[in-house]
Each structure stands twice: as structure tokens, then as C-alpha cells.
Amino acid sequence: MKTPRAVILFAHGARDARWAASLQSLAGAIQARLGEASVRAAFLEIQSPTLAQALDAAAAQGAKHIDVVPIFWAGAGHIDKELPPIIAAFGARHGGVTVRTLPVLSELPGMLEFIASVVATLTPGPSPAAAGEGRKGGPAQDA
Fold it and tell me: Alpha-carbon distance 123 to 44, whole Å?
């Protein structure tokens, strides 16, 4: 099926194929929200398809705009160093296709607040002000 828009979730990859299960679940959730856009996963190494293969497949299916979503916590390393050459090589092969890289996970709007909220919910305890009350000798220490 031809689709003018594609989204590629770009993750590291791992030796254990089960590692990709949550990525496929995320792809399904995004697909449900985007309708006709093509949503797929791609990997930097170990697992397939590679990002280059996924980009080529999206273009072959008629995508004219591709969003690459780095499923990496931070940009330093793989995203800053290895992603740009992959996208540049794709651009040289498919000049009529626009590729946009979305922010890494930690830079997505609301992500840090969302995680902080979930962690606070999952680790109930006294409020920060109450936690310091009655304590002698400063911060808690691990035994």
C-alpha cells in the first residue's frame, strides 16, 4: 500500500529478540493514532531491519515524508554521531523524500515530568518535607 507518510522508531537493538517486544507495542500504539501512516521499527545494530533498510522500505512504499523517532534516552553518542550519516546516505539515494529526526526521549515535551510523576506514584512515602523531619545525622544512608 502506498502511503505518503512514514514513522520509524529507531532503537539500539539487542541479542535477545524479546527486547524488541515493547518497541513493537509502541509502534502499534502510534499506528493506531496515525491511521494511514506507515509505522515501523528499525535498529542500529544486532537486530533487523537496520535504519537504512527501514528508510529504503518506506520510500519504496511511497513515503515522501519520514519521521525518525530515536528511542534513545539522550542524543550524545549514537544519535549525534551515527544517525546523521545514515540519513545523509538515504538522502543521496532518495532526494525527493524528506526525513525529519524527532527529539530523543529525554527531550520530548513533558517526558521528564511524566516519568517523575509515575516514579513518585510508584514509590509512595512521606512528602519531601516530612521525610526530613525527625531525622538525625543528615540524609539517609544505604546499609
Answer: 34
Q: Structural domains in the chain?
A: 5-112 (3.40.50.1400)
Work out the number of other CB atoms within 10 angstroms of the CB of residue 41.
22
Strand partners, 38: 6
pTM above 0.85, yes or no: no
Handedness of CA 54, 55, 56, 59 (dihedral sign): positive
The Cα–Cα gap between 35 and 71 comes to 21
Cell of 64: 515522501
Lookup: cell for 5: 507518510
- For the chain, 143 residues long, the average pLDDT of each consecutive 10-residue run is 88 90 95 94 95 98 97 92 96 96 96 96 75 48 43
